[in-house]
Design a protein that fits this description.
Elements (H helix, E strand, L loop, with lengths): L2 H15 L23 E2 L6 E2 L7 E5 H6 L15 E4 L8 E4 L14 E5 L2 E2 L12 E8 L13 E7 L7 E9 L3 E13 L3 E12 L4 E2 L9 E12 L5 E14 L5 E5 L29 H11 L3 E2 L6 E17 L2 E19 L8 E22 L4 E14 L4 E6 L9 E20 L7 E21 L17 E21 L2 E12 L2 E2 L13 E2 L2 E16 L2 E21 L18 E22 L2 E17 L6 H4 L14 E12 L5 E11 L2 E2 L10 E2 L2 E11 L6 E8 L7 E4 L8 E6 L4 E11 L2
């Protein structure tokens, strides 16, 4: 942060400090100094329940916790949540969310293992980035979500809820100034339009920051921030028992994209499937042995420069526009509630990436995605037998369609006279489901014991059209694909999923549960029109997970010391695992690049994943809290049954492959201290530490190019809240205090292009925030 920016912030804070006191702030001094969110309400089972008495492993954050922990993106949740890894897989544009070893395929149009929901509407893969400003809560659900939540998933769900409108006039404005010329403005205003009947909340954010990866080649610096976001939420309660909430959100980014840094070079001849770009045809232009066209020399130069400097051979860009509408209607009729959740999403992404991270034209690519998604979920909820039996039944529908050009072109080993095609792939998918779940609370001698059972049946279909367009300036589009010679295909799947379990509330401070769940991820469509060598791989089958979990949630108080401890252990049997492979140029040997797939998703293996997750907090005295969390994940393949022709792409003995993006241990800890500085302000200091053991971004065990060793990182935040009882907050933050450098994700980690690239973490950044609130805080 520049001296000019810091001076501006301090001047603004001085001006605001003499402003008129905010309304409804006189009771701030009486508020507890304890950590916020001691008993967070979650919606993990489509009902509002305490996080401490819901029989599922869930980590939840309210708005104050997010602000104190300086969470500015969903990726920051990695450092505060056991068992979660939000990684910028290949690119930060569409991060991969990994829970308990479950992740989406590294390439291709597969259904997600973990779905992100915004206002209860599932988001598409291409539009799962949600800015975390004006968010009321974030919930991370772990394990298969096989019955109640929107789309079927095998790994879990990430739920984000914006602050809802209410009937108080209130709002805030905030400015953040920080490293790399960061300037972020955000704010919200809540407007009661008709008392007790109509309310409106609008919020927005403008974020700018220079890139922290210096680009000495074509285009601007990478890993910059240049995005805008807007939300509007309308609450209607025309009559008692009827409630309708509509949320419109819009997001646009015009950025240079993600820095991918050359991390390793595969040898020639190939070892463990590596080095296929080192061919005699390429060698005069790519592997020539002199500076300017040799990958080994480029790698030596990259090692000398470090991971914060690259030199791209194309002008990179990342342009993203996401918008959508969520409409929720709730009607209460006696003890029965009717609920409908309608969602519409539109995602448009255009990107150019230098995926080898060098001045060589080795592996560059452009891509375009333009899709729309329509979803609707209808629920009927109620209770019987004096509230001992609660029940829910419902139906779910989702349809995703291409609305513009969808495809990509990869420029691999560019040499004079070599042509490249823009491969257009138009995938349409639909999902339909019926579901129901009950919970029955026993009485008498079994008081506190509860049975939970749910069942769902899902029908999925995926279809597509693929065509190669030699003229990238005149792309075909979805409507003309088949008419212009595109190859079509489809795949359908259906499956039952369930939840069965018991929980036991021993007393108000001790809760036990055990559950069995089945998760399912649908079949999908790769592409048609490939060479006969790939016959049978135009589609792939569904994968399934059977999960067993037991957990304890507890709170206690001893001698004035308060504490909380939660632990869960699980075992997941994982079948028909979907994995991406990258055949490489002319893998089939027919000399025709037009019928070669850049990637394929295949059903490759079976595995067992075992693990334990825990979190705790201790408050020895008012205002001081120590907290911690940890996750142990033991993920191993039981068997690999990929076709023999693809084994060289998977490693010498694939059953020994690693689960990528899944460290064996992640551990975190935090200290929070809060006190009142007389009548000046409430001071809150947070220090948070995170540790990860070794992470593999490749799965081949003998491949050392895509491995990140164990690392630690520390974040600090200091807040002065409600200064002079005027609704003014001033905060200072440092992320990555010790400026630790580590790979946050893999870039290109397939030997078929000879080199490996990684995506690195954010360097140390620091800054300050000034916030002015009015009305209800």
């Amino acid at each position: 942060m520049t001296c000019r920016s810091l001076s501006a912030l301090l001047l603004a804070s001085t001006v605001l400090a003499i402003a008129t006191p905010a309304n409804a702030q006189s009771e701030a001094q009486a508020q507890s100094l304890d950590q916020p969110g001691g008993d967070i309400v979650v919606t993990a089972r489509r009902r509002e329940e305490s996080a401490q008495t819901v029989p599922v492993s869930v980590t939840a954050f309210n708005s104050e916790m997010l602000r104190e922990k300086a969470v500015v993106s969903t990726q920051d949740l990695t450092y505060t949540t056991p068992g979660l890894n939000v990684a910028p897989q290949t690119s930060r544009d569409t991060p991969s969310i990994v829970i308990r070893g479950q992740r989406r395929a590294t390439a291709g149009a597969s259904a997600p293992s973990v779905v992100t929901y915004f206002a209860d509407v599932p988001l598409p893969n291409e539009g799962s980035i949600v800015p975390t400003f004006d968010i009321s809560s974030i919930q991370v659900l772990k394990g298969p979500q096989g019955t109640l939540f929107g789309r079927n998933t095998t790994g879990g769900a990430l739920l984000l809820y914006p602050v809802a409108p209410d009937y108080d006039l209130a709002g805030y404005g905030q400015i953040t100034l920080g490293s790399y010329n960061e300037t972020t403005f955000e704010g919200a205003v809540n407007l009661p339009i008709v008392a007790d009947h109509v309310a409106l909340r609008v919020a927005g954010q403008i974020a700018r920051r220079d890139g922290y990866t210096k680009n000495h080649g074509l285009g601007g610096d990478l890993d910059d921030r240049h995005n805008d976001a807007f939300r509007a939420s309308l609450l209607l309660e025309p009559i008692n028992g009827l409630k309708n909430t509509t949320v419109f959100d819009w997001y646009r980014a015009r950025e240079n994209g993600t820095g991918t840094v050359l991390n390793g070079v595969y040898p020639n001849p190939a070892v463990s499937g590596g080095g296929t770009a080192r061919t005699a045809a390429n060698r005069p232009y790519f592997d020539c042995g002199v500076a300017g066209c040799d990958i080994d020399i480029a790698f030596a130069e990259q090692q000398a420069a470090g991971v914060r400097d690259v030199s791209t051979s194309i002008v990179p860009y990342s342009h993203r526009t996401f918008w959508g509408v969520a409409n929720t209607t709730e009607l209460e009729v006696g003890d029965v509630t009717f609920k409908d959740i309608f969602g519409y999403r539109r995602s448009k992404v255009a990107a150019a990436r230098d995926m080898d991270g060098t001045y060589l034209r080795l592996y560059d690519g452009v891509s375009s995605t333009d899709v729309e998604q329509l979803s609707n979920e209808f629920q009927i909820l109620g209770s019987l037998l004096n509230d001992r039996l609660d029940w829910i039944v419902g139906a779910f529908y989702l349809k995703s369609d291409p609305t513009g050009v969808n495809g990509s072109a990869t420029y691999s080993a560019v040499i004079p006279g070599r042509t490249f095609t823009f491969n257009e792939n138009y995938n349409t998918s639909s999902s339909k489901a019926l579901f129901g779940q009950i919970g029955y609370a026993f009485g008498g001698f079994a008081e506190g014991l509860r049975f939970n059972g749910g069942f769902r049946y899902t029908w999925d279909k995926s279809s597509g059209c693929s065509v190669a367009a030699l003229d990238t300036a005149n792309r075909i589009g979805p409507d003309a694909c088949a008419a212009r010679g595109g190859k079509t295909g489809s795949e359908s799947s259906k499956a039952p999923t369930w939840t069965l379990g018991f929980d036991y509330k021993v007393n108000d401070d001790l809760f036990l549960y055990i559950t069995n769940r089945r998760g399912y991820r649908s079949a999908g469509f790769n592409q048609s029109g490939m060479s006969p060598y790939f016959d049978g791989f135009e589609t792939f089958k569904p994968e399934k997970v059977t999960d067993y979990e037991a957990g304890i949630k507890s709170s206690w108080e001893l001698g004035g010391v308060k504490g909380r401890f939660n632990i869960a252990a699980y075992t997941s049997k994982y079948n028909n695992i979907q994995r991406s492979i990258f055949p490489g140029a002319d893998f089939d040997g027919d000399g025709n690049p037009a019928n070669d797939p850049g990637s394929l998703i295949i059903n490759a293996a079976k595995a067992t994943i075992k693990g334990t997750e825990f979190d705790f907090s201790i408050t020895p005295t008012s205002g001081f809290t120590l907290s911690g969390f940890g996750a142990y994940t033991d993920a191993k393949y039981d068997e690999y049954d990929a076709p023999a022709a693809f084994i060289p792409l998977l490693g010498n003995n694939p059953v020994n492959n690693k689960f990528s993006y899944t460290p064996k241990w992640t551990i975190g800890g935090g200290a929070r201290y809060a006190t009142y500085l007389g009548n000046f302000a409430e001071m809150v200091f947070n220090a948070n530490w995170f540790h990860s053991t070794k992470v593999w971004y490749v799965e081949r065990p003998l491949d050392t190019n895509g491995i990140q060793k164990a690392y630690d990182t520390v974040n600090l935040k200091l807040d002065f809240n409600n200064i002079e009882d005027r609704g003014i907050d001033l905060g200072f933050f440092v992320r990555n205090l010790f400026d630790v450098t580590y790979a946050a994700a893999g870039g290109v980690v397939t030997p078929s292009v000879t080199s490996t690239t990684l995506v690195y973490n954010e360097p140390r950044v620091f800054g300050a925030q000034l916030r002015m609130s009015f009305g209800k805080r």
